[in-house]
Design brief:
alpha+beta, Umud Fragment, subunit A, nine-stranded mixed beta sheet
């Protein structure tokens, strides 16, 4: 979960209500140090596990619909609930399973009015419930965003596009991302190469086109990898493949690498290559500007 001003405001309100960060940490089960890092802006994302713990304690109000989303109005939710009753579906989780959407917490937030609808998800809901979109409380512009009727009736996968960052641009992309430059989340779908990911994949998932042969045969030159950022190296299982952007203060000449993450003697951190001709990079946590776990690769034929 990407940390924005909306989430920081809700966190501060929850901490104040609890008395202090330590007491709030005891209540929600997230460490006080992590909560302080969220509030200070030292990290820009919250892991899914921590977000699941924090969410019940946060008061999040609906935000203005982002570009490409459909406003999640009370009228629209009521329209869907009435259609669900006709299918003997009584809970958001039953509907989530009915359409094959994977992330229960995100779907619950939709029905709590905290998130807006992505057009393909709402299209899948309408298809599953056999709703007539012309009767739904939508604006003409929102109705045009919906997929053709019946597209998801037979279980088509819900996907969304993620822009592909070329390896030569990865260092500057991640530097701007960590500076919280909102321009990095704006891209032209007509000119930017993209890859499809499941609609319920993490919103901060990044796609990079790898350059080089150091991870052969697992990852080949020109493969595209999907990467989920992590806040702390302690959260990375040993032997996972990662993408790392080193900060400008480190002595490591390569600013961005795709390597295998390893711990030596439970303390020394190393990045290793699968290709025997590749090199090993010892590093320290303080060298890292951004790090993420490779969750999938896509080989272009």
């Amino acid at each position: 979960m990407r940390i924005d001003d909306h989430i920081i405001h809700a966190l501060r309100k929850a901490v104040t209500a609890a008395g202090d960060a330590k007491e709030f940490a005891l209540r929600c089960g997230v460490s006080a140090s992590n909560i302080s890092r969220y509030l200070s802006g030292k990290v820009r994302t919250i892991t899914d596990e921590s977000w699941e713990k924090l969410l019940p304690f946060l008061e999040l109000t609906p935000q203005k619909p982002a570009a490409g989303t459909i406003a999640n109005t009370p009228e629209l939710r009521q329209f869907i609930l009435e259609a669900m009753a006709k299918k003997s579906l009584s809970t958001p989780d039953q509907l989530r399973r009915f359409i094959g959407y994977g992330h229960s917490s995100s779907f619950k937030r939709i029905f709590d009015g905290e998130l807006n609808w992505f057009p393909d998800v709402l299209s899948a809901v309408f298809d599953a419930l056999e709703c007539d979109a012309s009767h739904a409380p939508l604006t003409p512009g929102e109705r045009e965003m919906l997929s053709p009727v019946g597209l998801y009736r037979d279980g088509a996968m819900l996907v969304r596009p993620v822009p592909v960052v070329e390896w030569a641009n990865a260092a500057s992309h991640l530097e701007m991302l960590e500076s919280d430059n909102v321009v990095m989340d704006q891209w032209d779908p007509e000119t930017t190469p993209t890859v499809p990911v499941p609609a319920d994949a993490r919103r901060d998932t990044r796609a990079f086109r790898v350059n080089g042969i150091s991870m052969e045969p697992k990852i080949l030159d020109d493969d595209i990898v999907l990467v989920e950022p992590v806040d702390n190296t302690d959260d990375i299982p040993d032997n996972k493949i990662v993408v790392v952007r080193f900060n400008d203060q480190s002595d490591i000449p390569e600013k961005v690498v795709c390597k295998r993450f390893r711990r030596q003697n439970n303390s020394q951190l190393l990045l290793t290559s699968d290709n025997p001709e590749g090199h090993i990079i010892p590093f320290d946590r303080s060298d890292i500007l951004w790090i993420g776990i490779v969750v999938k690769k896509i080989s272009e034929m």
